[in-house]
């Protein structure tokens, strides 16, 4: 759900539902998911007529950093290297991803 709100800004439950393939989700399922996300502080809502319009309350990078920290802590004792190696070894990085990673590493080397 969050990825849809990040991509499209804000949406009603019906608007979110329309972005899924036909029959992939029920209205009540989407409603439950955004309600839970709102309770957890990831999403905010405002009233627009009779409908609630939802938007992301947290940035994608913030959620990504938090989730990766949690996975690294749980799976690799807090180390990022095994996660990165797994992504590379299992061909999960595109050539563009690798180029971006190299550029970032070059910037880090230059700043030392």
Task: Give a brief outline of the structure.
This protein has 112 residues and is of the alpha+beta class. The chain has two domains: 2-56, Arc Repressor Mutant, subunit A (Orthogonal Bundle); 60-111, Orthogonal Bundle (Penicillinase repressor fold), CATH 1.10.4040.
Would you kindly provide a written description of the structure presented here, covering whatever features stand out?
This protein has 112 residues and is of the alpha+beta class. It folds into 2 domains: 2-56, Arc Repressor Mutant, subunit A, CATH 1.10.10.10; 60-111, Penicillinase repressor fold, CATH 1.10.4040. It contains 6 helices and 3 strands; from the N terminus they run αβααββααα. A 3-stranded antiparallel β-sheet has the order 1-3-2. 10% of the residues are buried.
Topology:
Layout: H1 2-8, E1 10-11, H2 13-18, H3 27-39, E2 43-48, E3 51-56, H4 60-76, H5 81-89, H6 95-111
Antiparallel strand pairs: 1-3, 2-3
Question: What low-confidence regions span 5 or more consecutive residues with pLDDT below 50?
Answer: none
The string of secondary-structure elements, in order, is HEHHEEHHH
> How is the biggest beta sheet arranged?
3 strands, antiparallel
CATH-level-4 superfamily name of the largest domain: Winged helix-like DNA-binding domain superfamily/Winged helix DNA-binding domain
- Which whole number gives the mean pLDDT? 92
Rg over alpha carbons? 18 Å
Structural class of the helices, strands and pairings?
Answer: alpha+beta
- Specify the number of helices: 6
Widest β-sheet, arrangement of strands:
1-3-2
Percent range for β-strand residues: 5-15%
N- and C-termini, Cα separation:
39 Å
Strand count: 3
Would you identify the CATH architecture of the largest domain? Orthogonal Bundle
Total discrete domains: 2
CATH class of the largest domain: Mainly Alpha
């Amino acid at each position: 759900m969050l990825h849809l709100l990040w991509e499209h800004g804000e949406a009603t439950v019906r608007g979110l539902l329309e972005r899924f393939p036909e029959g992939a989700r029920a209205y009540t399922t989407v409603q439950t998911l955004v309600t839970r996300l709102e309770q957890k502080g990831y999403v905010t809502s405002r009233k627009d007529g009779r409908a609630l319009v939802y938007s992301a309350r947290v940035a994608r990078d913030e959620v990504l950093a938090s989730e990766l920290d949690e996975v690294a802590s749980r799976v690799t004792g807090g180390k990022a290297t095994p996660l990165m190696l797994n992504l590379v070894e299992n061909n999960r990085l595109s050539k563009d991803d690798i180029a971006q990673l190299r550029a970032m590493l070059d910037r880090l080397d230059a700043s030392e």
